[in-house]
C-alpha cells in the first residue's frame, strides 16, 4: 500500500471527493515526512505548514459541502523559491537579497492558489537558478534522496528532491537550459518544459524565449494536471498564449504506444553519453517498440561545442547582463559558479554578435525539424552524465564517458538544444537506474506546440517502463 506522503495527486483528489481522505490528513502526513527526512536532503528554504493547515481545513469543508471543488483543491504544492509569494522573502538564493520581499504572487503561484492548491513549502535553488547543481551560500547543499552523495540536479533541484522524498505531490519548476528536466531525470520524477508562451512568466525576463515556468510531479498524469492549471494568457506576460491547455491522457496503458512513430537519438551528435544512460534510453525505445510503436534510430549533426556557444551567446545578451545588474552591489558574496556563468556569458557576447546567435539558433531549429519529419516525437537522454556531485562546482569542466574532458559541465547535459528550439514541448520521464544508484531519464520532444503528443508518449513510457512505485531507500536523517 502506498504511504500517504507518497500518494499521487490524481488519486488524492479522487479520495478527497469520495470523502475517504481529508486534505488535512494528507497535509499532516507530508508535514511528518518533512520533519523526518528533510534534514538530510535540504530540499526546502522554508515550510509554511502553519499557514497551510487552515487552507486544508477549508478545503475539507468544501468537499463536505460538495461545492466549489476547484482543480487542485486541498493538494499541497511545493513552490520553487523564485516563484514569489506576496509578502514573503524572494532572494533568488542570493545572500545579499535574503531580506527582499515579493510584491505580488508569481503568475503560476496565483493560478495554483486560485485552483485550490496549498503552498506548504518553498524549494531550494542555486543562485539565480544559474547552475545544474543545487547549492548556495544562503541555503547550503541540497542532496539527492536516492544517494545523498549526488545532486538532485538544478536549478529546480529542491523541487525534484522534495518529490522523490515524499515531501510534496506537486511542485513548481522553471527551465532555461534544462532546469526542470535535469532534476526530473536525476530524481526519478516527471518534469515538463512547456513551449515558450504556454505558461506565463514574470516580466521582464518572461520575454526571454529560452525560459519557461512549469510543473514537476511523480507521475505523467499529475504533471499534466498542474500544467493545465498553470497554462493560459496572463495580463502580466504579453508573450503568453491564449486558451486552456486541455490534456486528455490515454487510459489504455501500454496500448497508447501502438502506432506511434518515435525517433530515437542517443547522442544528439557528439554528446559523450554514459553506458548506463545509453542502456536505459535504449530500453525505453525497445519497450515502446514491443508495445507496437515504430521506433527508428536517427542521428543529428550537433556538437556540444556548437550548442554551448549558441546558448551562451544568448545568455550574454539577456540573462548574463540581468544578473550583473542584480548583483552589482555585492559581487563578493556570489558563489563561484555564478561568477563563472556571468563571465562565460560576457565572453560569448564579446565574441559573437546577437545576430550570430540568432542565425545559429534558426539553423539548429531547422535541423531538428528535418530530423523529426515523419515522426510523432523524438526521445533522447536528458543528461549524458549519470550524476553530479552534490557540492560540486565544476569550474574546470567535467569528465564524461570514456574519460573525455568537457570544458564546461553543462556540455554533459542534453537539454539546452530544446531551449534553443523552445517552441517544442519536452516531457522528462524516468528511464531506469544509473550504476551509481540514482535514476536516469529521457526527454520526449514534440513538434512545436504539440503538447498533447508528448504527454501521450509519456503515458505510454510510464506504462511500458513502470516507475511510480519505486522509492529511494531513504533512512530518517537528522
TrEMBL record:
Similarity section: Belongs to the amidase family.
The name this protein goes by in its record: Amidase
Membrane-spanning residues: none
Pfam families: Amidase (PF01425)
Domain Amidase, first and last residues per copy: 25-454
Annotated coiled-coil segments of the chain: none
Source species: Arthrobacter oryzae
GO function terms (MF aspect): catalytic activity
